Protein 1
Amino acid sequence: MSMTLAEKILASHAGMEEVHPGQFVEVSVDVVLANDITAPIAIAEFEKLGLGRVFDAERVVLVADHFAPNKDIQSAGQCALMRRFARAQGLPHHFDVGRMGIEHVLLPERGLVLPGDVVVGADSHTCTYGALGAFATGMGSTDIAVAMATGRIWMRVPETMRIVYHGELQPWVGGKDLILYTIGRIGVDGARYKAIEFGGAVVDALPMAGRFTMANMAVEAGAKAGLFAVDDVTHAYVNGRASRPYRVYQANEDAAYAQVIEVDVGQIEPQVAFPHLPENVRPASQAGDVPIDQVVIGSCTNGRLEDLRVAAEVLRGRRVHPDVRCVIIPGSQQVYLDALRQGLIETFIEAGAAVSTPTCGPCLGGHMGVLAAGERAVSTTNRNFRGRMGHPESEVYLAGPAVAAASAVAGRIAHPRDLRPHARNT
Amino acid sequence: MTITGKAWKYGDHVNTDVIIPARYLNVSDPQELARHCLEDIDPGFAGTVQPGDVIIAGENFGCGSSREHAPLAIKGAGVSCVVARSFARIFYRNAINVGLPILECPAAVDGTEGGHQLEIDLEAGQIRNLTTGQVYQAEPYPPFMMEIIKAGGLVPYIRRQIEAGDLSIR
Ligand code: SF4
């Protein structure tokens, strides 16, 4: 009865001894999530079910992050609808402007999602929580409505693909580069319908921020979930945050994987995904001469304190190129406050960057940095689909915070090692 | 149920951002969303698509975000069915849940060009290309999913369980 991590968690939440890939199971969920874009439909569908109350007010989390602070009257209406629902249901975890963060930065930070959980969210990047050893997956609003009402949801047990990273990381290479490289290798549907288990000595040594970044983009390879084993790094992160007890599951040594991929990280340099798919990946040094108009550093992928530290390391004592707007968005109020206390915000502003309150904003072409026709952005976000950040004729290049910050200084896609030491473009 | 309509053909990885760009996600009314359906890859689509028409696409249709606005926009535009080589998993769930018929059938995709007339028997999963005379058989739905489809979507399916008193709340 050998099972992968995903199978272990699903079996226990289905109340079964074991489960097999392909099997349809009904699982209990520990946390249900929606945001200001997906909650309005979920709430409407929830009302149609006619049950009245959510299954457990403590476990339904609503975050106003996509078009908040409200970008227009209609988005204000969507947030208002969500707010009214949260009040009527007495939801303690409704996060509004001034107390919020981008959902996938916020929920782990608040200890609301924990190892061993099954989490379903009306947002495709719900898979981020796999970094904590949870089975977390994105669904649509109707599924989420049912989960909010019943605390249960049907799932097809996915096959698991294991990706093992070994070797020594080069300077400036982080979780974002590893996951971009991986997507470049397996393609945007390389893990379709599967769970990915990330492993190997490299990820064992990776801090939580890097693990969140990698799990976050599992869906960019088509995966249903991307999971990491729970270890000391996980425990150190969760201790002091956990809002309730949790249970740790472990894959069996002889679990059956649909596929095992080995990655030698020694040769991987900082990566850039060219438009219009996250799989169009190239090493930063081979990006060629790509002048840019905007840089965005933030999002549920790279909006954590560690990401801002990397960006600050590059930007300290340097200036954002005169032709570039650099927008930096801390992923939560806490990240913002920590960055402020550590002097990072000062570094950004002195460098000529704009720093915003937490929001998804430009990541999905909402506000706070929408692109015009023909404009190009280097962004630490996770998708570069056509029109993702604005005009359909604009372009998004995905990278980690080091390349993004270096590009902001250089005015074109750049590897941080190629910047002149503390060059000042005045 | 048999449907007939004209084929609109697209490639691989048609993602939810192009099906309905995020800039229009400040509303969730299907008719409103339908006005912008696919506009970033085919500006002519929303204005000319006719009720009953069929979208034909390659691999991984509907990849990207979990926005249910995507199948709602397609349904709102009057599209009767999406036939693809494969679907992204969240889109697949969403389409079943909101009652947008979808079929996986690589052979039909390869044998159909934009503008061909199609006749589809949804129950049987049979796709007849009236222009070429070819007939294709789509992958059957898993039985569990067929029940949701027959109920008319996930909400009516769960409602039925509630009414029968056999719904378990966690
Ligand atoms: S930051 Fe971007 S990818 Fe992340 S939840 Fe917000 S819109 Fe989605």
Protein 2
Amino acid sequence: MSKLFTIDNSFESYQSLISLYNENSNKVFSEISVELCGFFSANMSAALGAVLDLLSDGFNTINFDYIRGDVESILSKNDFLTFYGRKRAVDIYGTTIKFQKLKPTDGKFFKSYVIEELLNTHVADLPRMSAGVKEKIIEAIYEIFVNAQIHSETTHIYTCGQFFPNKNKIEFTIVDTGIGFKEKVNRRFNWNLSSEEAINWAVQDRKTTKIGIPGGIGLAVLSEFIAKNKGKFQIISDDGFYQFEANGVILKRFVGRFPGTIVNLQFKTNDPYNYSLKSEININDIF
Amino acid sequence: MEPLQIQIVNLIGDVYAVEAEDGQKIFNSITKAFTDKQKVNISFQNIEMLTTAFLNTAVGQLYKDYTEEFIKENLSVSDISDSGIVSLKRVVDTAKLYFKDPEAMQHSINEILED
């Protein structure tokens, strides 16, 4: 029996999911019972879904023995529980951003999903956003999705989000079950970095593992936007934890390892910054 | 001679120029035109979303095979948004540095270990 208590974007929450995976990863042809006993931030469905999918690979059956009432309601609205035999519920308040399980080649589906869930459905929820914020949020989400496509060597990408209107924020989580930052960076350069060091290297401007194609801008651009927006982003990969906020970076190590990478993005929707300012770069002076 | 016009939206069949794979299609067309000694104008008309991953593949990797002077002389862009110009400029500056010193990435480990 695996009980999960409060699951939000705290270090301890990610540790709980890692422990859930590590305690059950050797099981085959077993029943794995999960109880969601406390608050569950709906966007974390992406991380839980990825873990449960990996555990299912051992021909294990996943059972939700208990889900707290309000959590069951929100996870039925965001479609997560429909992947586990439950009925879909209607989201009257329009605060959910649906759980999706995509193949890395499903870029076109991801586009429809982003447009439907972030641009069309929630237009009325986001009237206070200043010019360009919504576009910057979508651009940031895309940079992370494309990173997972290019680098992770995953079979699936899991995404989910949640609007928190009272807190003026959106959280969006993108998860892969691929090789992780440590393996990718160390393999490319024959280094021996820890997970935290590998993540910390990769988020620096102009750092890339690609060969023959420049890169390493996406995560740096994301950091700059998050700093202006006063949001937060976290990367959980293998046993490494990285958190970026305007006031600093936190690096930590988990007990056990997450089998892939979680990127959790937190955006402020009451951001007054105008991102639509005219560029001063001359179009004839780019190259 | 007028430069060859490459309409991104037409070539990739999408108003979202976001995936590296689509960037490769643009890169292939540009290099084909350069091989045929044609100047190229890339039109971003109707493009609604851009990522640096797309731009790195479409434009950044040109600096591997062509000099800065050649690219300046033979490549231009049009109908690009202000945010697109900022991203493209950043991609181009990064590409120049990347190909100027291919070993720099290998040595960059020191930057984090010295922190």
Protein 3
Amino acid sequence: MLEYYTFFGLSIPVFLVGIGVLIGALLLSVAYLTYFERKVLGAMQRRQGPMTVGPLGLLQPIADGLKLFSKETIIPSAAHRAVFLIAPMLLFMLALIAWAVIPVGAQMVLSNINVGILYLFAVSSMGVYGVIMAGWASNSRYAFLGAMRSASQMVSYEVSMGLIIVSVLLVCGSLNLSEIVLAERPWFAQILLIPMFVVFLVSILAETNRAPFDLPEGESELSGGFMVEYSSMTFALFFLGEYANMILMSGMTVVLFMGGWLAPLPLEAFEYVPGIVWFVLKTTLVLFFFIWARATFPRYRYDQLMRLGWKVFLPFTLGWIVLMSGTLLAFDALP
Amino acid sequence: MLAALIFYLFAGILSLSALMVITARNPVHSVLFLILAFFNAAGLFVMLGAEFIGMLLVIVYVGAVAVLFLFVVMMLNMEFKELRKGSMRFIPVGLLLGGVLLTELVIVYQTWKINPKVLTETLGDSAAAPEVPLTNTEALGQILYTDYIYIFQGAGMILLVAMIGAIVLTLRERSGLKRQKVADQQKRQASDVLEIKKVTPGTGI
């Protein structure tokens, strides 16, 4: 069990380079995810989206980043300074460290631990602290209300997310993410997983506080929610953290339900495409869903959100797990 | 070498943050230090090779239990100085309780024996070692759901009773609440609520 700190036979410099490449790629994807979002939203609302900075507006995210860098960091005088500053860092860091276990291609994973999915679940369940700490340390009523909403929302949807993960584990029989991707899934199990996939997609919207579940930052009632007191780089960290979390959740969806880095169809031409390309394409597809949902649905009311989580998703996933395990047992298909 | 360094890092932060839990002035800071302590304990579990327990500790305690702690402590907004006033009186009792706990832990540690069956069946003894070593999730599952199934299910029942008890104790019927009834909303037709009338100008309805 010592392989946790022997870096899987890789020498430490190689390992550090791997981490650097991963983080660099992630930050670049976050920057261009904002561009992608604005372009897609623009197209859905018959606008142009960003188009003045650089060709096709491609330099817009960089300009936005520079603007945020050059602003002054304001810390409210009544804020609890240390907690106020730790909160955005924590949120951003959690969004980054989760990527250590996500396999972006065959053998392309930083640490191939055998409880990968639990690690992911643990890291994503800690995200709530960044939000609560920010809301409390700001010493502002709006921020505090936003944090309270966010915390109860994330805790509620985690329960059904956990059950959905259990259902995937039942079919795949491993906690290792690479093995989950490679596991053979019987056709009836795949059909049974489709409703779980839909519930999971809705749950990740709620888990990342995205529209239509963006009540924690509902600008019409809370003027920006838990990050209302943040400015400049501290705000940028929240922003980056939120988008990195979106990419993370999309990656998790791809690994659990969409076959990870494997080609979608067994065509010969597809075998020449490297696995990471498929992974990126599939992740982009889920990210498109995030933006699509934002452009389509109005914001939920708070009691509707809680009702959906506890009275619809939780009973449904619980019942479906019983059904799935029963079916798998009947067909003798448990791994 | 590296392992030892990492161990001392986790253990050091764990002890320090545990100390800070009881000495921090602000109760919210106490809870945050408690979370840090949980997290480092999970790190120690992973070092021991018990990665399943480590992750479980983070998911259950850090991800769920401590969130509720933090919730309550933040909502109460209590004056901690008031609470602290007479706290010196309780030091002897606290020391006594701590001493009892410590003695019990030492006794348990001294007399700890691992069931030999567990060792041979799940980890594989030297004679009949399994070809592929079990991950500790599988190992735990094989013991928990065979030898200890009744105790395990009993613990589950106790938790269920506690949960239902908490719900029953806090549930109160309130009258005059306006609740959304989705079925009623769906049933509602335009013809039930809308009425179109011809109004001749100058007369009104």
